[in-house]
Amino acid sequence: MDVLRIEGGLIAEVTIFGSEVFAAFGLPLELPTVPSRPAVDRSAEAAR
Predict the structure, then answer these.
(1) d(CA 22, CA 31)
(2) Angle formed at CA 15 by CA 20 and CA 33, multiple of 5 degrees
(3) What residues does each domain of the chain span?
(4) What is the per-residue pLDDT across 5-38, written as a single tens digit (0 to 9) for each?
(5) Taken in order 3, 14, 33, 20, is the CA torsion positive or negative?
(6) Maximum distance among all alpha carbons in the chain?
(7) 1, 11, 12, 34: which sits with the fewest CB atoms below 10 Å from its CB?
């Protein structure tokens, strides 16, 4: 997990945590697999 500290609209600091702290934040070690959705062709919209 990466935590960004923002100052004045810019990234001032990046703190990186390993998976050993996930439980302390209530986060799972792995995200559940979700079925993929078909890609949406937006090329016709961009041509307008």
Answers:
(1) 12
(2) 50
(3) 1-29
(4) 999 999 999 999 999 999 998 999 998 898 888 8
(5) negative
(6) 49
(7) 34
